[in-house]
UniProtKB/TrEMBL annotation:
Protein's name in the database: Uncharacterized protein
THUMP-like domain: residues covered: 321-391
SUPFAM superfamilies membership: S-adenosyl-L-methionine-dependent methyltransferases (SSF53335)
Alphabetical list of InterPro entries matching this protein: PG_1098_Fer, SAM-dependent_MTases_sf, Thump-like
Domain of life, source organism: Bacteria
Domain PG-1098 ferredoxin-like: 278-320
Origin species: Flavobacterium limnosediminis JC2902
Pfam families: PG_1098_Fer, Thump_like
Amino acid sequence: MDSPLLNSAVQDFITDSLQANFTKIALMKNPFPDIRWNDILNQIASKNKAKDKLPTWFSHKYIIYPSKISIEQTSSERAAKYKASLIDGVTLIDLTGGFGIDDYYFAQKFNKVVHCEINEELSKIVRHNYQILNQRNIECYQGDSMDILKKLNLKWSWIYIDPSRRSDVKGKVFMLKDCLPNVPAHLEDYFQYTDKILIKTAPILDITAGLSELRFVKKIHCIAIDNEVKELLWEIEKDYSGKTGLNAVSLTKDKTEIFSVNYGETDVKANYSLPKKYLYEPNAAMMKTGAFEAIGVTYDIEKLHQHSHLYTSETEIEFPGRKFVIKETFPFEKATVKKHLEGKKINITVRNFPLSVDDIRKKWKIIDGGNEYCFFTTDVNNEKIVLLCEKI
Protein backbone atom coordinates (compact mmCIF):
# COMPACT_ATOMS: atom_id res chain seq x y z
CA MET A 1 0.00 0.00 0.00
CA ASP A 2 1.41 3.37 -1.03
CA SER A 3 0.63 5.68 1.88
CA PRO A 4 2.73 8.47 3.42
CA LEU A 5 1.51 7.22 6.81
CA LEU A 6 3.85 4.24 6.36
CA ASN A 7 6.92 6.45 6.49
CA SER A 8 9.05 5.15 9.37
CA ALA A 9 9.37 8.63 10.92
CA VAL A 10 5.58 9.05 10.86
CA GLN A 11 5.11 5.60 12.37
CA ASP A 12 7.58 6.42 15.15
CA PHE A 13 5.74 9.69 15.82
CA ILE A 14 2.40 7.87 16.06
CA THR A 15 3.85 5.32 18.51
CA ASP A 16 5.56 8.00 20.61
CA SER A 17 2.30 9.99 20.81
CA LEU A 18 0.17 7.18 22.22
CA GLN A 19 0.93 8.07 25.85
CA ALA A 20 0.75 11.82 25.33
CA ASN A 21 -2.21 14.12 25.95
CA PHE A 22 -4.22 13.82 22.73
CA THR A 23 -5.66 17.34 22.99
CA LYS A 24 -2.16 18.83 23.24
CA ILE A 25 -0.98 16.73 20.31
CA ALA A 26 -3.95 17.90 18.22
CA LEU A 27 -3.10 21.56 18.88
CA MET A 28 0.58 21.28 17.97
CA LYS A 29 2.06 22.18 14.60
CA ASN A 30 2.09 19.35 12.09
CA PRO A 31 5.68 18.03 11.91
CA PHE A 32 4.85 16.36 8.56
CA PRO A 33 3.39 19.13 6.36
CA ASP A 34 3.08 16.81 3.35
CA ILE A 35 0.55 14.66 5.22
CA ARG A 36 -2.88 15.77 6.40
CA TRP A 37 -2.66 16.36 10.14
CA ASN A 38 -6.13 14.84 10.68
CA ASP A 39 -4.95 11.59 9.08
CA ILE A 40 -2.07 11.35 11.54
CA LEU A 41 -4.31 12.23 14.49
CA ASN A 42 -6.77 9.55 13.40
CA GLN A 43 -4.00 6.94 13.44
CA ILE A 44 -3.02 7.96 16.98
CA ALA A 45 -6.63 7.86 18.25
CA SER A 46 -7.47 4.60 16.47
CA LYS A 47 -4.29 2.84 17.54
CA ASN A 48 -4.99 3.81 21.15
CA LYS A 49 -8.48 2.29 20.82
CA ALA A 50 -6.88 -0.90 19.47
CA LYS A 51 -4.49 -1.38 22.39
CA ASP A 52 -6.76 -3.60 24.49
CA LYS A 53 -9.31 -4.56 21.85
CA LEU A 54 -6.88 -5.58 19.08
CA PRO A 55 -3.53 -6.38 20.72
CA THR A 56 -2.21 -8.30 17.68
CA TRP A 57 -2.74 -5.29 15.42
CA PHE A 58 -1.46 -2.89 18.07
CA SER A 59 1.79 -4.81 18.49
CA HIS A 60 2.76 -4.51 14.80
CA LYS A 61 4.41 -1.49 13.26
CA TYR A 62 3.12 -0.24 9.89
CA ILE A 63 -0.48 -1.25 10.56
CA ILE A 64 -2.91 1.27 9.05
CA TYR A 65 -6.11 2.01 10.98
CA PRO A 66 -9.51 3.21 9.73
CA SER A 67 -11.49 5.82 11.69
CA LYS A 68 -11.78 5.61 15.46
CA ILE A 69 -15.50 4.85 15.07
CA SER A 70 -14.69 1.88 12.84
CA ILE A 71 -12.35 0.53 15.52
CA GLU A 72 -15.08 0.93 18.15
CA GLN A 73 -17.57 -0.96 15.97
CA THR A 74 -15.31 -3.82 14.88
CA SER A 75 -15.15 -7.19 16.63
CA SER A 76 -12.62 -7.54 19.42
CA GLU A 77 -9.99 -10.25 19.11
CA ARG A 78 -11.57 -12.15 22.00
CA ALA A 79 -14.93 -12.27 20.20
CA ALA A 80 -13.28 -13.13 16.87
CA LYS A 81 -11.38 -16.05 18.43
CA TYR A 82 -14.61 -17.42 19.85
CA LYS A 83 -16.35 -17.14 16.45
CA ALA A 84 -13.52 -19.02 14.79
CA SER A 85 -13.80 -21.79 17.38
CA LEU A 86 -17.38 -22.50 16.26
CA ILE A 87 -16.81 -23.28 12.59
CA ASP A 88 -14.25 -24.75 10.21
CA GLY A 89 -13.99 -25.99 6.65
CA VAL A 90 -12.15 -25.46 3.40
CA THR A 91 -13.44 -22.05 2.27
CA LEU A 92 -15.28 -19.09 3.81
CA ILE A 93 -16.48 -15.87 2.22
CA ASP A 94 -17.14 -12.81 4.39
CA LEU A 95 -19.71 -10.60 2.66
CA THR A 96 -19.20 -7.64 5.01
CA GLY A 97 -15.45 -7.69 5.68
CA GLY A 98 -14.93 -4.37 7.46
CA PHE A 99 -11.58 -4.09 9.23
CA GLY A 100 -11.07 -7.83 8.87
CA ILE A 101 -10.58 -8.95 12.47
CA ASP A 102 -12.97 -11.90 12.17
CA ASP A 103 -11.43 -13.04 8.89
CA TYR A 104 -7.95 -13.09 10.38
CA TYR A 105 -9.13 -15.70 12.88
CA PHE A 106 -11.31 -17.57 10.39
CA ALA A 107 -8.16 -17.94 8.30
CA GLN A 108 -6.66 -20.09 11.07
CA LYS A 109 -9.49 -22.61 10.54
CA PHE A 110 -10.05 -22.49 6.75
CA ASN A 111 -7.77 -23.10 3.77
CA LYS A 112 -9.02 -19.93 2.07
CA VAL A 113 -10.98 -16.89 3.25
CA VAL A 114 -12.38 -14.18 0.97
CA HIS A 115 -12.87 -10.69 2.42
CA CYS A 116 -15.47 -8.54 0.60
CA GLU A 117 -15.63 -4.82 1.32
CA ILE A 118 -17.56 -2.20 -0.60
CA ASN A 119 -15.40 0.69 0.69
CA GLU A 120 -12.38 0.91 -1.60
CA GLU A 121 -10.03 2.62 0.87
CA LEU A 122 -10.91 0.22 3.69
CA SER A 123 -10.36 -2.76 1.37
CA LYS A 124 -6.86 -1.46 0.55
CA ILE A 125 -6.08 -0.95 4.24
CA VAL A 126 -7.18 -4.48 5.15
CA ARG A 127 -5.17 -6.03 2.30
CA HIS A 128 -2.08 -4.12 3.45
CA ASN A 129 -2.56 -5.13 7.10
CA TYR A 130 -2.87 -8.83 6.24
CA GLN A 131 0.50 -8.55 4.51
CA ILE A 132 2.03 -6.97 7.61
CA LEU A 133 0.48 -9.73 9.74
CA ASN A 134 1.80 -12.33 7.28
CA GLN A 135 -1.67 -13.78 6.74
CA ARG A 136 -1.45 -15.24 3.25
CA ASN A 137 -4.66 -17.25 2.81
CA ILE A 138 -7.07 -14.28 2.75
CA GLU A 139 -8.07 -12.73 -0.57
CA CYS A 140 -9.53 -9.22 -0.56
CA TYR A 141 -12.19 -8.17 -3.07
CA GLN A 142 -13.58 -4.64 -3.29
CA GLY A 143 -17.16 -4.10 -4.40
CA ASP A 144 -20.72 -5.24 -3.81
CA SER A 145 -20.61 -8.60 -2.05
CA MET A 146 -23.54 -10.11 -3.97
CA ASP A 147 -21.83 -9.25 -7.24
CA ILE A 148 -18.61 -10.84 -5.98
CA LEU A 149 -20.49 -13.93 -4.81
CA LYS A 150 -22.07 -14.37 -8.26
CA LYS A 151 -18.86 -13.60 -10.13
CA LEU A 152 -16.78 -16.14 -8.18
CA ASN A 153 -19.64 -18.65 -8.49
CA LEU A 154 -18.19 -21.13 -5.99
CA LYS A 155 -19.63 -23.44 -3.36
CA TRP A 156 -18.40 -22.23 0.05
CA SER A 157 -18.08 -24.16 3.30
CA TRP A 158 -19.47 -21.10 5.11
CA ILE A 159 -20.76 -17.62 4.34
CA TYR A 160 -20.22 -15.05 7.09
CA ILE A 161 -22.30 -11.86 7.30
CA ASP A 162 -22.20 -8.92 9.71
CA PRO A 163 -25.08 -6.74 8.49
CA SER A 164 -25.10 -3.08 9.47
CA ARG A 165 -28.19 -1.05 10.30
CA ARG A 166 -29.30 1.17 7.43
CA SER A 167 -28.65 4.87 8.05
CA ASP A 168 -32.32 5.74 7.47
CA VAL A 169 -33.53 3.44 10.24
CA LYS A 170 -33.87 5.25 13.55
CA GLY A 171 -34.35 4.02 17.09
CA LYS A 172 -32.74 1.27 19.12
CA VAL A 173 -34.97 -1.63 18.07
CA PHE A 174 -34.51 -2.98 14.57
CA MET A 175 -35.18 -6.03 12.45
CA LEU A 176 -32.74 -7.88 10.20
CA LYS A 177 -34.69 -6.55 7.21
CA ASP A 178 -33.62 -3.06 8.36
CA CYS A 179 -29.95 -3.94 7.84
CA LEU A 180 -27.54 -4.05 4.91
CA PRO A 181 -27.40 -6.56 3.44
CA ASN A 182 -31.02 -7.58 3.97
CA VAL A 183 -30.29 -11.17 4.99
CA PRO A 184 -33.89 -12.48 5.11
CA ALA A 185 -34.52 -11.22 1.57
CA HIS A 186 -31.30 -12.78 0.22
CA LEU A 187 -31.33 -16.05 2.15
CA GLU A 188 -32.34 -18.17 -0.86
CA ASP A 189 -29.65 -16.48 -2.97
CA TYR A 190 -27.00 -17.29 -0.36
CA PHE A 191 -28.06 -20.93 -0.25
CA GLN A 192 -27.11 -21.27 -3.91
CA TYR A 193 -23.49 -20.88 -2.80
CA THR A 194 -23.40 -22.55 0.63
CA ASP A 195 -25.30 -24.76 3.06
CA LYS A 196 -24.01 -22.97 6.17
CA ILE A 197 -24.24 -19.32 7.17
CA LEU A 198 -22.95 -17.52 10.27
CA ILE A 199 -24.56 -14.14 10.96
CA LYS A 200 -23.36 -11.59 13.50
CA THR A 201 -25.88 -9.04 14.78
CA ALA A 202 -25.85 -6.27 17.36
CA PRO A 203 -27.04 -7.31 20.85
CA ILE A 204 -30.09 -5.05 20.68
CA LEU A 205 -31.67 -7.36 18.11
CA ASP A 206 -34.45 -9.28 19.82
CA ILE A 207 -33.90 -13.04 19.64
CA THR A 208 -37.57 -13.83 19.04
CA ALA A 209 -37.75 -11.19 16.31
CA GLY A 210 -34.62 -12.59 14.65
CA LEU A 211 -36.06 -16.10 14.66
CA SER A 212 -39.27 -14.82 13.08
CA GLU A 213 -37.28 -13.46 10.12
CA LEU A 214 -34.80 -16.31 9.61
CA ARG A 215 -35.14 -20.00 8.77
CA PHE A 216 -33.07 -23.06 9.61
CA VAL A 217 -31.47 -21.51 12.71
CA LYS A 218 -29.41 -24.25 14.36
CA LYS A 219 -27.85 -22.29 17.21
CA ILE A 220 -27.69 -18.77 18.64
CA HIS A 221 -24.75 -17.49 20.70
CA CYS A 222 -25.09 -14.46 23.01
CA ILE A 223 -21.53 -13.15 23.41
CA ALA A 224 -20.65 -11.02 26.44
CA ILE A 225 -17.18 -9.60 27.05
CA ASP A 226 -16.45 -8.55 30.62
CA ASN A 227 -20.17 -8.90 31.38
CA GLU A 228 -21.39 -6.66 28.55
CA VAL A 229 -23.25 -8.31 25.66
CA LYS A 230 -21.43 -7.34 22.47
CA GLU A 231 -22.98 -9.44 19.72
CA LEU A 232 -25.31 -12.26 18.77
CA LEU A 233 -24.21 -15.06 16.46
CA TRP A 234 -26.71 -17.05 14.40
CA GLU A 235 -25.69 -20.43 12.95
CA ILE A 236 -27.90 -21.33 9.98
CA GLU A 237 -27.84 -24.66 8.16
CA LYS A 238 -29.88 -25.22 5.01
CA ASP A 239 -32.99 -27.35 5.64
CA TYR A 240 -32.20 -27.71 9.38
CA SER A 241 -35.41 -28.56 11.26
CA GLY A 242 -34.31 -29.48 14.80
CA LYS A 243 -34.38 -27.46 17.99
CA THR A 244 -32.54 -24.14 18.13
CA GLY A 245 -29.71 -24.21 20.65
CA LEU A 246 -29.07 -21.10 22.71
CA ASN A 247 -25.62 -20.44 24.22
CA ALA A 248 -24.85 -17.68 26.72
CA VAL A 249 -21.11 -17.08 26.33
CA SER A 250 -19.24 -14.99 28.90
CA LEU A 251 -15.68 -14.09 27.88
CA THR A 252 -13.26 -12.61 30.40
CA LYS A 253 -9.48 -12.40 30.42
CA ASP A 254 -9.30 -15.43 32.70
CA LYS A 255 -11.96 -17.79 31.36
CA THR A 256 -14.86 -18.60 29.07
CA GLU A 257 -18.17 -19.65 30.64
CA ILE A 258 -21.01 -21.11 28.57
CA PHE A 259 -24.61 -21.75 29.60
CA SER A 260 -26.56 -23.83 27.05
CA VAL A 261 -30.28 -24.39 26.61
CA ASN A 262 -32.75 -24.99 23.77
CA TYR A 263 -34.74 -21.96 22.74
CA GLY A 264 -38.42 -21.91 23.63
CA GLU A 265 -38.61 -24.94 25.92
CA THR A 266 -41.68 -23.94 27.91
CA ASP A 267 -41.97 -27.15 29.91
CA VAL A 268 -38.96 -26.24 32.07
CA LYS A 269 -40.02 -24.75 35.41
CA ALA A 270 -37.71 -23.58 38.19
CA ASN A 271 -38.42 -23.97 41.88
CA TYR A 272 -39.01 -20.85 44.00
CA SER A 273 -37.86 -20.01 47.50
CA LEU A 274 -37.27 -17.28 50.04
CA PRO A 275 -33.59 -16.22 50.27
CA LYS A 276 -31.26 -18.90 51.63
CA LYS A 277 -27.52 -18.64 52.35
CA TYR A 278 -26.22 -17.87 48.85
CA LEU A 279 -27.40 -15.46 46.14
CA TYR A 280 -26.68 -15.77 42.41
CA GLU A 281 -26.96 -13.10 39.73
CA PRO A 282 -26.73 -14.40 36.12
CA ASN A 283 -24.18 -12.75 33.84
CA ALA A 284 -25.25 -10.43 31.02
CA ALA A 285 -25.17 -13.15 28.34
CA MET A 286 -27.47 -15.38 30.39
CA MET A 287 -29.86 -12.49 30.95
CA LYS A 288 -30.00 -11.85 27.19
CA THR A 289 -31.18 -15.41 26.51
CA GLY A 290 -34.29 -14.88 28.63
CA ALA A 291 -34.05 -18.53 29.76
CA PHE A 292 -34.68 -17.68 33.40
CA GLU A 293 -36.55 -20.84 34.34
CA ALA A 294 -33.92 -23.05 32.69
CA ILE A 295 -31.13 -21.33 34.67
CA GLY A 296 -32.74 -22.46 37.92
CA VAL A 297 -33.26 -26.02 36.68
CA THR A 298 -29.79 -26.37 35.11
CA TYR A 299 -27.94 -25.29 38.25
CA ASP A 300 -30.46 -26.72 40.73
CA ILE A 301 -30.99 -23.37 42.44
CA GLU A 302 -34.22 -21.59 43.30
CA LYS A 303 -35.64 -18.32 42.02
CA LEU A 304 -36.64 -15.55 44.39
CA HIS A 305 -39.51 -14.40 42.15
CA GLN A 306 -40.73 -14.92 38.60
CA HIS A 307 -39.52 -11.46 37.53
CA SER A 308 -36.56 -10.90 39.87
CA HIS A 309 -34.09 -13.18 38.01
CA LEU A 310 -32.08 -13.75 41.16
CA TYR A 311 -31.41 -17.23 42.52
CA THR A 312 -30.60 -18.76 45.88
CA SER A 313 -29.31 -21.98 47.47
CA GLU A 314 -28.28 -23.34 50.85
CA THR A 315 -24.94 -24.69 49.59
CA GLU A 316 -22.51 -22.87 47.29
CA ILE A 317 -22.29 -23.96 43.64
CA GLU A 318 -20.20 -23.03 40.60
CA PHE A 319 -22.19 -20.45 38.66
CA PRO A 320 -21.47 -18.32 35.54
CA GLY A 321 -22.32 -14.98 37.11
CA ARG A 322 -21.87 -13.11 40.37
CA LYS A 323 -22.10 -15.02 43.65
CA PHE A 324 -22.77 -13.65 47.12
CA VAL A 325 -23.15 -14.78 50.71
CA ILE A 326 -26.36 -13.31 52.13
CA LYS A 327 -25.43 -11.71 55.45
CA GLU A 328 -28.84 -10.34 56.29
CA THR A 329 -32.35 -10.15 54.83
CA PHE A 330 -34.82 -7.50 55.99
CA PRO A 331 -38.11 -6.03 54.78
CA PHE A 332 -38.15 -2.85 52.73
CA GLU A 333 -39.34 -0.44 55.40
CA LYS A 334 -38.09 3.12 55.78
CA ALA A 335 -36.94 2.79 59.37
CA THR A 336 -35.24 -0.57 58.75
CA VAL A 337 -33.41 0.59 55.63
CA LYS A 338 -32.33 3.76 57.43
CA LYS A 339 -30.96 1.73 60.34
CA HIS A 340 -28.93 -0.63 58.13
CA LEU A 341 -27.84 1.55 55.20
CA GLU A 342 -28.13 5.31 55.72
CA GLY A 343 -24.86 7.13 54.98
CA LYS A 344 -22.91 3.94 54.27
CA LYS A 345 -20.69 3.05 51.32
CA ILE A 346 -22.44 0.15 49.57
CA ASN A 347 -22.92 -1.22 46.04
CA ILE A 348 -26.63 -1.12 45.19
CA THR A 349 -28.50 -3.35 42.70
CA VAL A 350 -32.23 -3.38 42.01
CA ARG A 351 -34.13 -6.31 40.45
CA ASN A 352 -37.92 -6.23 40.03
CA PHE A 353 -38.18 -3.24 42.34
CA PRO A 354 -40.16 0.05 42.05
CA LEU A 355 -37.26 2.38 42.94
CA SER A 356 -34.14 3.02 40.87
CA VAL A 357 -30.58 2.83 42.23
CA ASP A 358 -30.37 6.65 42.11
CA ASP A 359 -33.64 6.98 44.01
CA ILE A 360 -32.36 4.70 46.79
CA ARG A 361 -28.97 6.43 47.01
CA LYS A 362 -30.53 9.88 47.29
CA LYS A 363 -33.20 8.82 49.76
CA TRP A 364 -30.78 7.27 52.25
CA LYS A 365 -27.57 9.15 51.31
CA ILE A 366 -25.81 5.93 50.32
CA ILE A 367 -22.34 6.27 48.76
CA ASP A 368 -21.43 4.07 45.80
CA GLY A 369 -18.63 1.52 46.27
CA GLY A 370 -17.09 -0.45 49.08
CA ASN A 371 -17.05 -4.18 49.79
CA GLU A 372 -20.70 -4.62 50.73
CA TYR A 373 -23.44 -5.35 48.18
CA CYS A 374 -27.12 -4.69 48.64
CA PHE A 375 -29.97 -6.04 46.50
CA PHE A 376 -33.39 -4.42 46.55
CA THR A 377 -35.84 -6.92 45.09
CA THR A 378 -39.17 -8.76 45.42
CA ASP A 379 -39.48 -12.23 46.95
CA VAL A 380 -41.70 -15.21 46.13
CA ASN A 381 -44.43 -13.81 48.41
CA ASN A 382 -44.43 -10.52 46.46
CA GLU A 383 -42.86 -8.73 49.43
CA LYS A 384 -40.27 -5.99 48.85
CA ILE A 385 -37.05 -7.05 50.57
CA VAL A 386 -33.43 -5.99 50.95
CA LEU A 387 -30.51 -8.44 50.87
CA LEU A 388 -27.23 -7.36 52.43
CA CYS A 389 -24.46 -9.46 50.88
CA GLU A 390 -20.77 -10.12 50.63
CA LYS A 391 -19.35 -10.98 47.21
CA ILE A 392 -17.63 -14.35 46.83
